[in-house]
Design a protein that fits this description.
It is built from five helices and no strands. The protein is an all-alpha fold and about 140 residues long. The chain is elongated.
Length: about 140
């Protein structure tokens, strides 16, 4: 084990010893360690986790996919600009209207399901030898 993981383990041991009646992840322990002002630490932790964890990397990947679909050779700054713009747009949409953000999420989910069904049907067609796998 590295020193970093041993230090994190020691911190979790300390939180577990301090709060034996509560179990959970970091948010639960931080909430118990810093109770005032109420909900400041859990909200901050959730915000930082969403912004700097999976969502920011997803926006970078989205920007690369958009440029690749458009057959455009984008620079790194153009990728970052589109990633920031898409992330900002979706954040503002979620802040302004929950209804429209849910509708957009449902639309994206429907498109993903249609693509997955198309891939599955295409696989069955190839397995049934209705079309050849080779081109030209």
């Amino acid at each position: 084990m590295s020193n970093r993981s041993l230090a994190a383990l020691a911190i979790y041991f300390e939180y577990t010893a301090l709060f034996p009646l509560r179990s959970g992840g970091q948010v639960v322990y931080l909430e118990q360690a810093y109770p005032k002002p109420a909900f400041l630490i859990p909200t901050t932790y959730a915000f930082l986790t969403v912004v700097f964890s999976f969502s920011s990397s997803n926006s970078v990947v989205l920007a690369r996919y958009v440029y690749r679909a458009a057959s455009y050779q984008a620079t790194e700054w153009q990728n970052k600009g589109l990633a920031i713009a898409s992330y900002s747009f979706l954040t503002i949409l979620c802040l302004i209207s929950t209804r429209w953000s849910i509708r957009l999420m449902n639309l994206i989910s429907a498109v993903k399901l249609i693509i997955l069904v198309f891939i599955a049907i295409t696989g069955f067609v190839v397995l049934g030898k209705l079309i050849s796998k080779r081109r030209g």
